[in-house]
Amino acid sequence: MRPWQNAVALAATLLAAGALLPLEPHLRLLLAALAVAIVVMLLVVRLRAHRAKRDDARVAGVYERIERIRAQRESRQRPPR
User: Fold this and answer.
1) Are 6 and 38 in contact (CB under 8 A)?
2) Which residues, other chains included, contact 46 with Cβ-Cβ below 8 Å and sequence gap of 6+?
3) For labelling, which of 23, 24, 44, 51 has a CA lying 20 to 30 Å from the CA of 66?
4) Helix (H) or strand (E) holding 6
5) 50/6: higher pLDDT
6) What is the mean pLDDT of residues 34-46?
7) Domain boundaries in the chain?
8) Which of 9, 64, 59, 60 is closest to 39 using CA atoms?
């Protein structure tokens, strides 16, 4: 994780720990909700960072290569005549 993500996760941990203190119920609920919101935000950021990036350079010619590989495989598997 990046350093700023570590800092945000630490802040969420502190908020969750604050929700365990003997405070007023609405304040404890607010702290817990903030901690959950931060964790969900970090989850979204991490998932977006790991998603596959599709661009034209990567996809160009892929289907032609697939067909060529399939044709080569078929020619190898066919019994000789």
Assistant:
1) no
2) 1, 5
3) 51
4) helix 3-18
5) 6
6) 96
7) 3-77
8) 9
